[in-house]
Amino acid sequence: MFYPLERLMNLYDGYQRGFTVNGHSLLLVQDNGRCYLLRNTCPHQQAPLTHATMNNGYLRCPAHGMEFNLMTGKSQGGCSQELQFIAIAYEGNQLGVEI
Ligand code: FES
To answer: Could you report how far apart the first and last alpha carbons of the chain are, in Å?
Structure first.
């Protein structure tokens, strides 16, 4: 079943918004024209990624400043864990997830 999160027309580079779906905290971001949906938990020490900053394909955690590649999920250095991405689904003019 499609669960809508956001209208496509509301997305822009720098967009960032948190959602809770089935008890899971998710973060939707757009950078360089591409959307990413990920678990809203930093791979380093599990801080929320809400208010993370994005720069040139990297998401920077606000807690300790580690940067993670939005394409690969890998850290710039120091963290062996990766971002956890959730598959994005599209229906009509909306973006969401299949639940
Ligand atoms: S919890 Fe994100 S960098 Fe440490």
So the answer is: 5
